[in-house]
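User: For a benchmark we're assembling, each entry needs the component sequences followed by a predicted structure for the full assembly. Here are entry 17's components. Please fill in the structure.
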Amino acid sequence: MTLLLGASTVGLILALLALGVYLSFRIFNFPDITADGSITLGAAVTASLLILNWPPALATLAGFFAGVLAGTVTGLLNAKFRINGLLSGILVMTALYSINLHVMGKSNLPLLEETTLVTQSESFLGMLFGPGDVGVFGWEVNQRDAAALCLAGAMVAGVGMILYLFFRTEFGTAMRAAGDNPQMIRALGGSVDFILIFGLAVSNGLIALSGSLLAQYQGFADVQMGIGMVVWGLASVIIGEALVGSKSTGIVITGAIMGSLLFRLIVAIALRWGLDPNDLKLITAVFVFLALVVPGALAALRSRAGRAR
Amino acid sequence: MLEVSGIGKTFHAGTPNEVFALRDVSFNLLEGSFLIIIGTNGSGKSTLLNAVAGTFPLDRGTVSLSGHDMTKWPEHRRAKLIGRVFQNPYSGTAPNMTIAENLAMAARRGLPRGLAWAIPRTLRSELRDRVRTLNMGLEDRLDNDIGTLSGGQRQALTLLMASWLKPDLLLLDEHTAALDPKSADQVIRLTHEIIKRDKLTTLMVTHSMQQAVRLGDRLIMMHRGSILHDIQGAEKARARPEDLLQRFEDVRRREQLDAPVAEMLGKTYV
Ligand SMILES: Nc1ncnc2c1ncn2[C@@H]1O[C@H](COP(=O)(O)OP(=O)(O)OP(=O)(O)O)[C@@H](O)[C@H]1O
Ligand SMILES: [Mg+2]
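Assistant: Structure for entry 17:
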């Protein structure tokens, strides 16, 4: 049970990453590798500030804005300097590796004694239910785990809701249109450059927020923690789309969250069954490859079969 | 109203692929006039419209509209004054968004976009009313994705979008060329109605000689990036399709004369 609970918590935290990847990859069709750096950046900034005894809420917010900054730089490189999107992301991600090391001062920052959002939620839960384990659907659950799960769930629900509402505003609609048909939104007076920069800023802000929460949950920030994260996020988005099978924004947002959750649970169970953790990234990459290729290949097969008939 | 003076654009300048798409084109358009642009393929008609819309920076010359010198304005800023329909029915609308969402964006053409609802309740009834004027039954499908519509329906909607907020200038680039004859007729009729009703100043490129003689109060014929003929007033009103075809024929004959000469010169000197 603790295993599933932990996996769900990480799944929810990484759902923020999935939402960020959804924004860049699905709305703008922009494969934004910055994510690998900005998730660590969020963790690094928050962890360093927590060690300086910043209030956790502020330290988390600072992590978010650090990601916003990173996304803005990627957007500027692409939109203003006309550097290829993939390369813009790679440049910023590479630069962030050094920056993250500077921010942390060393390659791993433990948060053992620090007050974090997780410890705060834990005390809050303690105040509500009294000390000791909490009963969830008949299971006795460690208070810290339950608190972390509630915190992650609340954050994701809030962010998902805000994102959903945002996409129904004038600016949010223009953002979706900028990804769907940039020529059209330009002809209607929208600056595609500005919208893209803004979108990447928000995307990386969410990804950094995910990193910030992850550090507080795991109890450390590590300079390596971002490696392969874009692919994690992508896998979650793809699973989510398969789950909900719809293109409407609200449903796809829910799908991405569910995808992240499901993906983490599958991984936890697979690891439990003896999957070598070292193979995890390889398997994820192969999975994303298949998810990207198989639908197209199936359609091609089907149309060939149709023609043959 | 619209003043285009001495504009020039060369693509791939200084390479073997150099194209003089526009050479020193100038004309003025009075408010409310409807200019038809014809010309052979590659004569620079689309490039002229793009130059006015600000799709690329010009090499030379200036473009001003309603007293604003727009030469240095990026495309999205010019969109405040300009409504546009493209040749490709897929260009003017966002296919994975609904009819209502597309129209709502057009209702804010050139205006700041903030965090207000994209489709407030008040707008919805207006959307329905104005879509009904298209007579295509689309008013009941406002929440369908535009990608599910036919090319003719999409062009009609794009036209509605371009003219939703009365533009100072309407640009139409062969906007019926990709449609079947019936839809093309329908969209042309709609074009005519909207332009007349709102007294829109319009630039329209067309390949159809029928459209060229029936519509507009002035006509220019382009050739190799320049204006070859400029027909206005009574002469435009009198023009018949055969007259225009005759002018194309003249151009072609002169080209054929030119070609052997160029070849000879090439052989002699290169
Ligand atoms: N973006 C571009 N880059 C390079 N060359 C271009 C570009 N746009 C136009 N051209 C070239 O400029 C010339 C004029 O093209 P333009 O599209 O304006 O012709 P047109 O009169 O609209 O022709 P059509 O009737 O085929 O639409 C052509 O030779 C074309 O190849
Ligand atoms: Mg053209």
